[in-house]
Structure formats: structure tokens, C-alpha cells
Amino acid sequence: MKLFIRVFIFTLTLAGIMANAQATQQYMDYYQAPACTSCHTSGILNSRTGKAGLSAYLAAKTPTCSAPQVLQGNVCVTPAPTISDSDRIFAYLESIYPGYLAPAGPASSNFSGYYYRYYPSTNAYIATANGTVYYLGSASQNQIISLGAQADWLAKAVAAGF
């Protein structure tokens, strides 16, 4: 039993030494960090100072991103804007009915359970609520009418690249 414990402790020690000895150099190589002696001029090189030095090096190389940018890898990128399903539908309808929904691209708003856009040039509205797309304007004699299921319009909008 004593032999087993000694072998077990020796194996753990060897594994720890090998992991520390190889890991520092592997990390330095992976991150293209300079040689340890370029920073550690006192000659004190161990796993604790190595990890701290690598952390400091990586922190100096990692940019700080300003919103709306986010860090992707080691680069700041601006994520693509997210667009709601309703806004996709609205943009699609604007493209196929420009005479009724002009000017294209007004801001969307919420009111009383409806998510909508108002088109001042044509005095028209399109809206979504409860899974349905609605229209109000000259083409409907200024009555609110259902244009159909939101899911159907979304499928058309996505298929058209909106």
C-alpha cells in the first residue's frame, strides 16, 4: 500500500511538473509572446510568475471594446443589428407596395398591443399583433384590415432576403 501511495504521489508530482514545464512554453508560443527572459530579467522563472507574466502580456494585447462593439477573439467587432420579425415584414411590404407605404423605413412603435409603422406620405399604417399583420390606409378605405398570418408574411420576407 505504501508503494502505491508513493507511486501515486510521484505520478501526480511528475504530471504537475510536466504540465507546468510544457504549458508555459506552449502558451507563450500559441500567443506569440516574447521569451520569458525579455520580461523576467531577475532570472526568477516559475509557474506562478510565468502565468502572471503571460496574463499581463495578454491583457496588454487584448483591446478594450466600446459599445456596441464586442470582443471576438482578439478583435473588436460591431455585431450585425438584430431586426425583429415584424420589422422584416414591414421592410418587405414596403418593397412590394411602395405606393401605399411611403416613405420606406420609418421608426416602428408600440401602442395598445400593436407593433406598427406609420407612413406620413401615404397616411397609412402597418402593424402586427397576436400573430396577424394589419393595414390601415387608402387601400382599405381607411379601415383596419387583416393582411394574413404573421408567420406567412415572415416566410415571404425571409425568402426575399429581408
Report on this structure.
- The protein has five helices and seven strands; from the N terminus they run H-H-H-E-E-H-E-E-E-E-E-H.
- With 162 residues, it is an alpha+beta fold.
- A five-stranded antiparallel beta sheet has the order 3-4-5-6-7.
- A hairpin with a 2-residue loop joins strand 5 (124-129) and strand 6.
- The protein is rod-shaped, with a radius of gyration of 31 Å.
- The model is unreliable at 1-23 (pLDDT under 50).
The helix/strand series, from N terminus to C terminus, equals: HHHEEHEEEEEH
List unreliable stretches of 5+ residues: 1-23
Total count of strands: 7
* Annotation field: number of helices: 5
Placed side by side, the strands forming the largest sheet appear as 3-4-5-6-7
- Compute the CA-based radius of gyration: 31 Å
- Let me know the average pLDDT: 78
Please tell me what the overall shape is: rod-shaped
Strand content is 15-25%
Distance between the termini: 70 Å
What structural category characterises the helix and strand content?
alpha+beta
| Sheet with the most strands, sense and barrel status | 5 strands, antiparallel
Helical percentage = 40-55%
What characteristics describe this protein?
alpha+beta, 7 strands, 20% strand, 162 residues, two-stranded antiparallel sheet
Helix and strand topology:
Blueprint: H1 2-30, H2 36-39, H3 47-61, E1 70-72, E2 75-77, H4 85-96, E3 108-111, E4 114-119, E5 124-129, E6 132-136, E7 145-149, H5 150-159
Antiparallel strand pairs: 1-2, 3-4, 4-5, 5-6, 6-7
Helix pairs in contact: 1-3, 4-5
